From TrEMBL:
Domain of life: Eukaryota
Provenance organism: Rhodamnia argentea
InterPro entries: EmrE-like, PUP_plant
Protein's name according to its UniProt entry: Probable purine permease
Family under the similarity heading: Belongs to the purine permeases (TC 2.A.7.14) family.
Signal peptide positions (record): none
Keywords per UniProt: Membrane, Transmembrane, Transmembrane helix, Transport
Gene name for this UniProt entry: LOC115752626
Length: 354
């Protein structure tokens, strides 16, 4: 009679932690130190620049700004910053610019138009909603990115990802039901509803832009090198800048900037500082997100995107005295839970395909 094999003892509490530490050490040693420095800087930009640009947009409206076109114009006015980073990469990486054929140019033009429209929708949201509420509603772009990615790019959707989508949608409903608690005194009920709807529509369009950008890479580019990603960002942003500039000019808002600057709380210098730093922080956030996608993965980028939602809300409460009701805190927690569920599902899809 054969002797029974000894049972393997159950894993201790520390074993998964030691395993994770071993994996982290292997990952660290597999890349040069410059990779991790760039990754750290890119993550830092995502977690600081995007919340800062959201807060500056709200500061503009709080201190006397009224134009929606100006704020949408500021969001793309910093596109030369990305171009300044793109051009040296041709010499450093010893690569040539991607040939721009008619189909690719038309794709970039469409993405530029959609980006300009998206920025305008978010400008209406910032005009009528607190920054903390806007950031929470903007997190619904993950829902639309997943859905559009599933239909247009044939990306996989796991049950965990679907669960995250449902949870985030529930968080948006909670905010809608608690609309009276965080509405500014000078904002009417109809304006608040308009801001809410424009924010959701902007998030939907943002998700569509992500899916279409991925589709452009698959159909026309076929590679996701760093300079190609930067090229797309520069061309799309420059198209969006041109289209938004036309809108600002037709609306005569360039002439109104001087009047806004004179009546702005804090004076002209504060007004132009908000404009300049708004343009810089938005582009730095875009650069950070672009670099994170290239240096790591969509999962890690999604994690940081989830983390910046509560960071924006907390910063808005501390710096801008945004109202923070119990329902909004509940919505924040549920949104974070939804992000976690979605990211877990994305990680499983990534491990299956790798």
């Amino acid at each position: 009679m054969e002797e029974a094999l000894p049972k393997k003892p159950p894993p201790t509490f520390w074993e998964p932690i030691f395993a994770a530490r071993t994996m982290a050490c292997k990952a660290y040693k597999s890349k040069p130190i410059s990779h991790w420095i760039l990754l750290l800087l890119s993550g830092g930009l995502m977690l600081t620049a995007f919340p800062a640009s959201s807060l500056l947009a709200r500061v503009y409206y709080t201190n006397g700004g009224t134009s929606k076109w100006i704020i949408s114009w500021v969001a793309v006015a910093g596109w030369p910053l990305t171009a300044l980073i793109l051009f040296p990469t041709y010499f450093i990486c010893k690569v040539s610019p991607t040939p721009l054929n008619l189909k690719l140019a038309l794709s970039y033009l469409v993405l530029g138009f959609l980006s300009a429209a998206d920025n305008l929708m978010y400008a209406y949201a910032y005009a009528y909603l607190p920054a903390s509420t806007s950031s929470l509603l903007a997190s619904s772009s993950l829902v639309f990115s997943a859905l559009f990615g599933y239909f247009f790019v044939k990306n996989k959707l796991t049950m965990s990802m679907i669960n995250g989508i449902v949870i985030i949608t529930a968080a948006m409903v909670i905010i809608a039901l608690d609309s009276n608690s965080d509405r500014y005194g000078n904002v009417t009920n109809s304006q608040y509803i308009m801001g809410f709807m424009w924010n959701i529509l902007g998030s939907a369009l943002h998700g569509l832009i992500f899916a279409l950008s991925e589709l452009v890479f698959i159909k026309y580019l076929g590679r996701r090198s760093f300079h190609v990603v930067l090229e797309q960002q520069v061309v799309v942003s420059s198209f969006a800048f041109i289209l938004t500039t036309i809108g600002v000019a037709l609306n005569h808002d360039f002439e109104g900037m001087a009047n806004e600057a004179r009546s702005f709380k804090g004076g002209k210098s504060s007004y132009y500082l908000v404009m300049i730093w708004g343009a810089i922080t938005f582009q730095l956030g875009v650069l950070g997100g672009t670099a994170m996608l290239f240096l790591s993965s969509t999962v890690l980028t999604g994690v940081l995107n989830a983390v910046r939602v509560p960071l924006t809300g907390i910063a808005a409460v501390i710096l801008l005295k945004d109202p923070m009701s119990g329902f909004k805190i509940l919505s924040l927690v549920i949104t974070f839970w939804g992000f976690g569920s979605y990211i877990y599902g994305s990680a499983n899809v990534s491990s299956e395909t790798s």
